[in-house]
Amino acid sequence: MTESKKIDPARIRSFIRRQGRATVGQKQALDSHWDKYCLSPQADFAAETAFGRKAPLIVEIGFGNGDSLAAMAEANPDLNYLGIEVHRPGVGHLMMLLEQRGISNVRIYHHDAIEILEQKIPEHSLAGVHLFFPDPWHKRRHHKRRIVRPSFLMLLNKKLAPGGYFHAATDWADYAKDMLATLSADAGLKNTSPTGDYCPRPDYRPLTKFENRGLKLGHGVWDLIFSKI
């Protein structure tokens, strides 16, 4: 009997590709504006070339439908934002928002975020990394799929510039505790919370409709912000 092939825990994907059905507007945006906003995972990445300028670079992993990313980019035109998302309709929705609002400081990768960080982003080049409401993989047998794990933090430490930050937010209490413990154990990162645990939602992170509805129902939301030492 042959031994089963062992899977490197660091290579376990934290997402499942959902096909979904794009709306007419999303399809039009995908067809018309792909080359304007989307970057090729096969090509080299140079921030100044991609954005046409030099500015602090913020990466958002898994931006969903892009509402929050578009709002942040519009409110902070002095920053460059790189959004990474595997859900194609979400990519289309974000491009639609960028076109409607004339937002020019966002570029997109429709690809696995870990591979983009590993292969495309220069070391010590990121001013910040955002991870808002990632899949909590709430069943215990699926916890190994959670993106915030030691191998991910090793990658973060390589890519963040000194003083750069990692900001995660979740509405799952168990995942919040798990992320807090994992982040706190990393010697390269420092919790910015004055109480040593969670932070108030900073003004730059928009309050989503889904989040606001949950808060009204008494659901909690936890923000964690750690800076690179």
Automatic annotation (TrEMBL):
Keywords of this entry: Methyltransferase, S-adenosyl-L-methionine, Transferase, tRNA processing
EC code: 2.1.1.33
Pathway info: tRNA modification; N(7)-methylguanine-tRNA biosynthesis
Pfam families the record matches: Methyltransf_4
Top enzyme class: transferase
GO molecular function: tRNA (guanine(46)-N7)-methyltransferase activity
Catalytic activity: guanosine(46) in tRNA + S-adenosyl-L-methionine = N(7)-methylguanosine(46) in tRNA + S-adenosyl-L-homocysteine
Job description of the protein: Catalyzes the formation of N(7)-methylguanine at position 46 (m7G46) in tRNA.
Protein name: tRNA (guanine-N(7)-)-methyltransferase
Lineage: Bacteria, Pseudomonadati, Pseudomonadota, Gammaproteobacteria, Methylococcales
